[in-house]
Amino acid sequence: MYRRILISLVAIGVLTSFMGLGGLSLFTATTDNDGNAFTSGSVDISTSPAFPPIAFLTMSNMAPGDSVTEQLTVSNIGTLDLRYAMTTDAVDGVPPGLAAVLTLEIRDEGTDCPTFDGNILYNSSLDLDLGYIGDPTPGGDLGDREITVAAGSEVLCFRVTLPSDATGPEGASTTVTFTFDAEQTKNNP
Hints:
Structural class: alpha+beta
Strand order of the largest sheet: 1-2-8-4-5
Number of domains: 1
Order of helices and strands: HEEEHEEEEEE
CATH architecture: Sandwich
């Protein structure tokens, strides 16, 4: 009798196990949403004429009262809107002192560069490392220039003058490098 009860309990347990398995049957499905891609933008600035090796602003045998005016196109060739700053680095030859005597004036294009009637962006001595537009430190700074991708570029007019009252060094020379530092404007206050 105990044996029948035990066999009956085992049979009920086995049947319950099979029934439990049947109760856990599920219909399932999955789908993929592939091809999600991400790319980062780029900040890329160029000048034309490009340097090196092309120097766009030169003059030899300057006498007091002489000046030279040239244009430089600054272009946004990246995929993000940008702002930029420009700094100078002047290196005097021997005898030194010419950079301190020369004046640098930079304007936006206005009518055109030969007319030189645009807004003044910089007007001071070309003295060692003092010429600048904006500030190359990150973030929006007073004087920074902006170029959107849509605009593409802007023209700057440069004029270097040896003032007529200059008594500065005869036979002197100076070499100047203009450096343009750009950064994105989006998400960059």
